[in-house]
Amino acid sequence: MKIDIVSVFPEYFDVLNLSLFGKAQAKGLVEVTAHNLRDWTHDVHHSVDDTPVGGGAGMVMKPAVWAECLDDLLGLEPATVTPSSNNSNTSVAATTDATASVPSTANADAAPEGTDIAASEESNAAPVNTTADANADASDAPAAPVSAVPPASDRPVLIFPNPSAPLFTQRDATELSHADHLLFGCGRYEGYDARIPAYYRAQGVDVREYSIGDYVLNGGEVAVSVMLEAITRLLPGFMGNPESIVEESYTGEGALLEHRQYTKPAEWRGIRVPDVLLSGDHGKVDRFRRDEALARTDEIRPDLIAKLDCAALSKPDRKTLMALGWEVSGAHPRRLGA
Fold this sequence. Notes:
CATH topology of the largest domain: Alpha/beta knot
Radius of gyration: 23 Å
CATH superfamily of the largest domain: SPOUT methyltransferase, trefoil knot domain
Number of strands: 13
Strand content: 5-15%
Number of helices: 8
Low-confidence stretches: 85-91, 93-148
Structural class: alpha/beta
């Protein structure tokens, strides 16, 4: 997998030379290049930002600098999009009727008003993820849609962290792990100009914008690091033991939080590991871990329980959920009394 990262602090990603990620690079599983956005500037100060249109605090990253950089990395020629007639200042014409609301920040302190565009897709283009309105709180953002097919392998997927975008999930990580080339853009200050993702969507690029949680960071570098690790650890050969990712939290259909883990000694400072784990009975151990996963998910993330397919639950699963206060006779579990 080829990975390009654009940032005003490319040295931040020196950490990718450590641990499993460093070993993956040495083995040729991933090829990572961090680019300095300022290399595409032409003024003496290497400026990448300017004041917000319409006023307001902070600075916004300029589209011209980003465009020169992304055109180079994507192998595109500069183009001019045709504004739609109803609002030439905020809309980009498209060949379809669908519109997408584009947030304008990337892990910034504030989210200026979004920009509506219509996404143009060629017949072989990968699906485009739409994003939440930039003025909405990240907590209101829906889960990021997952395309029916992996990203097209013949072109990069362009990804921007954005606190106003849909949440990045394990399903997104799994989907993106099938891509051959990922290109990440790290925003700073008040974020990037909303026309940047709008423009590249209009050029048929698979553009994704993701939030990694309901909080705001100073820049996109941390968020990119989080997404990179979640994606690349799913690559064949990346993990030392591939079985270690099979039962992890959020993994697979019917995903739950993982059960607790213990190691030796069996007793430490007066606290023993559960006796069943010392029994040698693998069937009982598996059942104990499954029940604990259900119980932990019920306590911490009941929304995941509510998404389970009751038809796929085993009789012991149903018994455990009923004991935890769930009705399991319908299509999905329902909290009794809810």
